[in-house]
Amino acid sequence: MLQVPALLRERAFLLIWITQVIEVSAFHISNLALPLVGTVVLHASPAEMGLLIAAQALPFAIFSLPTGVWVDRFARTRLVRICLVALGLAFVSVPIAWGLGVLSLPVLYAVGFLIGSVNTLFGTAHQVLVTHTVGRARVVDAHRVMATTDSIIRLVAPGVAGLLIEAVGAPRSLIVQVLVLSLAWWVFRRVTEPPPDGGEIAAEKAPEQSLWPSIREGLRYVWRDPALRAIAVAAAGWQFLFHGFQALHVLYATRELHLSPGEIGVAHILGGAGALSAGYLLKRINARMGAGQVLPFGLAMTALAWLAFSVLPSAEPWNTPALGLCLFFFDFGCVCFFVNYISMRQIVTPNELLGRVTATMRFASVALAPVGAVAIGHLAEAVGLRATFATLGVLGACVAAGLLRNRHVRHASQQALQATA
Q1: Higher per-residue confidence, 177 vs 87
Q2: Tell me, what DSSP letter sits at residue 194?
Q3: pTM of the prediction?
Q4: How far is residue 72 from each of residues 19, 185, 197, 278, 361, measured CA to CA in Å?
Q5: 384 CB neighbour count, 10 Å cutoff
């Protein structure tokens, strides 16, 4: 018999969780809609799709470090509410531009940059808010609940998004996302700022330091911790490759595999099943393998999925289930890596530095992502999509192997996660 997780019986976490359910549902619509606007409506090339993903990733490189200071100084609940409003404005601008006949790739790049800017602040504020709401002893359980929820949504949302896009078109589908984000804002406004682990609310005790000394503190903490430094390097290499994959996979599915938006949505449902399976099994996998081994194991699974992408059949009826199977293993590996990575980072960081260290790690891991999206987009134009996916797989395996050999990561992740068992 299924049991409701204990955290969901607590009002504060429940409201944050409901907000996440709504926000993630909206995200999965845009995750298909924006690339389909680029490939189907605006007929973008692989290099142009690389620029679109680069525009969404660039704000992480520019704004991640300042947002860490802001999250440590201001109420996270207020920041999240502002982000939900800004995301709604970004998404509604696409159907408006399309309706006025002025939608173009530069417009899409600007929207992507705005979405990335908002997500830079939202992600840091949300992760710190979760940690302060549940406390460090339960942060792994909290992120596992979040990851499992995301996986369940992925079982339904991509198929619904694909059908919605086929019915009304990719630009109009973003109007639905605006309505969904409005609901998320309405729920989240009931969330109150919690004290960090029982102390005073950090946002009410803003540090006297100016911006750049505060940023340097977060950078210094990450650099001096060998485990955090090694994971940041591995995540940076993986994100470089992943954003190239993000730029190409919808284009590959439509032009090489000849799939419709609805069929792409069905394939992504199988990806959600992989993420759900990982969320359900992760505690047992950690116990059997050790969290320090599971981190590179997750990255290795994503690398194998990229290799498999390079040999997918383009003929029916095998193209849709083959793509879905690749996404299943890719998402399984992502959950194994990121739940442990985020949980370990939040556990080992002091409260007063939590926002800055979270932002520093996000900056370090995603700073090269725009370069990866552009470079891999151009690589695909030069050598073709299938050869590019094979290259991603080989390089991803190298990143996983480097992390596997790092003893600091094995020891630190195991000790941190055992402390919460």
Answers
A1: 87
A2: P
A3: 0.75
A4: 21, 22, 14, 32, 15
A5: 14
